[in-house]
């Protein structure tokens, strides 16, 4: 994923499925143009800073 698309996903009222290493995550915020803070969709406590390029958009959730 690129920085621009990550910004669009965060700003959108629509929910998108994003994965990191095959695991569904929620993008909390963009730290800079290269990294984002994410958490697992099932666990709000565990947050990680990851490379935006490693995030994948899977599909739009209804």
Short description:
The chain has one helix and five strands.
Outline the secondary-structure elements.
Blueprint: H1 3-11, E1 16-20, E2 23-30, E3 35-40, E4 47-51, E5 55-60
Antiparallel strand pairs: 1-2, 1-5, 2-3, 3-4
Describe the structure.
- The chain has 62 residues and is mainly β.
- The protein has one domain (3-60).
- Helix content is 15%, strand content 48%.
- It has a five-stranded antiparallel beta sheet.
- A hairpin with a 2-residue loop joins strand 1 (16-20) and strand 2.
- The protein is globular, with a radius of gyration of 10 Å.
- The termini are far apart.
- The model has no long low-confidence stretch (mean pLDDT 90).
- Pfam families: SspH (PF08141).
- Keywords: Sporulation.
- It is found in: Spore core.
- Belongs to the SspH family.
- One of its GO terms (biological process) is asexual sporulation.
- Rg from Cα: 10 Å
Put simply, the count of helices is 1
Indicate how many domains the architecture comprises. Answer: 1
Strand content: over 45%
Order of helices and strands: HEEEEE
Query: How many E strands?
Result: 5
Q: What share of the residues lie within helices?
A: 10-25%
By helix and strand content, what is the structural category? mainly beta
Query: Order of strands across the biggest sheet?
Result: 4-3-2-1-5
Low-confidence regions: none
Distance between the termini: 21 Å
- The average pLDDT value, as a whole number, equals 90
Shape label: globular
Largest sheet: 5 strands, antiparallel
Protein name: Spore protein
Pfam family, one: SspH
Organism: Rummeliibacillus stabekisii
Family: Belongs to the SspH family.
């Amino acid at each position: 994923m690129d920085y621009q698309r990550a910004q669009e996903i965060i700003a959108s009222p629509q929910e998108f499925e994003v994965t990191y290493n095959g695991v569904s995550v929620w993008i909390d915020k963009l730290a800079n143009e290269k990294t984002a803070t994410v958490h697992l969709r099932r666990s709000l406590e565990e947050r990680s800073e990851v490379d935006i390029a490693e995030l994948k958009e899977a599909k739009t959730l209804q």
